Amino acid sequence: MDHSLLPLLSFFVGVIVGLTGIGGASLITPMLIFVFQVPPAIAVSSDVVSATLMKFVGGYKHWQQKTLDIQAVQWLAMGSVPGSLFGIGMLHYLKHTGQNVDYIMLHLIGVMILLVTLLALTQMLLLTFFPKLKLPEMPKLNLSTVVGKILAMSMGAVLGCLVGLTSIASGSMFALVLITFFCLDTSKLVGTDISQAAILLLFTSLGHLSLGTVDWSLVLPIWLGSVPGVIVGAKLCQIAPQRPLRFVIYTIMLMTSCKLVY
């Protein structure tokens, strides 16, 4: 398909991201694969590079506003960066051993989107239909202790590896970890998530550039459309009904992930 449509479609994805907070990679990577017939390896690498700019702009803004937890960013990033590079190393190994990287990544992307979507749908349905339900609270990490720091790095390493392999979940899965295991002020949750993702994606982008699978003819149009789209979506966020919109998008993502897996 003609790539001239990519900025327009990326703009709509950016609006959805700004409007709902749903991760751009969960939408852009499948769009590149299904709509523009881009091979999965190139789609993942190009998406990682295109997402880095948006995350860094957002992270810098939150750093200026002091709406992030620097300690949480530091210890998660110390795990996620080497984890991501390990994931990229696995892709290098698969590529050099003659494995069908596109086939493997297609299924990995599908599984990751399916996992993220099911977790998000479950959380949303519980909040909608059982608002008074009290779930057992998970233990919170104390980053002033050695055990807390090691656990934070371990979580970051596992999720970072998955991001390195698929580009999915640099925001959504880390946000879930921050909500579940970290004692963060609500005002610092988004900033911490975005800032950690910015550091992770910077090193992930460098790794994917070394794979030689980044297509700049895809990256630049995605930047052109998605950045203003995010700004517009953030403005519309104040008036749009969140839960019905999220439910529709999650349903679409669920069908997309099933198609990728099967």
Low-confidence stretches are: none
The overall average pLDDT, rounded, is: 84
Main structural class = mainly alpha
Output the helix-strand order. Answer: HHHHHHHHHH
The radius of gyration computed from the alpha-carbon positions, rounded to a whole number of angstroms, is 18 Å
Please tally the β strands and state the result: 0
Strand count, sense and barrel status of the largest sheet are: none
Transmembrane segments: 6-25, 73-94, 106-130, 150-182, 194-212
Pfam family, one: TauE
Protein name: Probable membrane transporter protein
Subcellular location: Cell membrane; Membrane
How does this structure look, described?
There is one protein chain. The protein is mostly helical. The longest helix is centred in the middle third of the chain and has 29 residues, at 101-129. The chain is globular. It has ten helices and no strands. Helix 3 (40-65) packs across helix 9, helix 5 runs antiparallel to helix 10 (242-261) and helix 7 runs antiparallel to helix 8 (186-211).
Map the helices and strands:
Blueprint lengths: L5 H15 L4 H10 L5 H26 L4 H27 L4 H29 L16 H21 L5 H10 L4 H26 L4 H21 L5 H20 L1
Helix pairs in contact: 1-9, 2-3, 3-8, 3-9, 4-6, 4-8, 5-10, 7-8
Short account of what is shown:
By secondary structure, this protein is mostly helical.
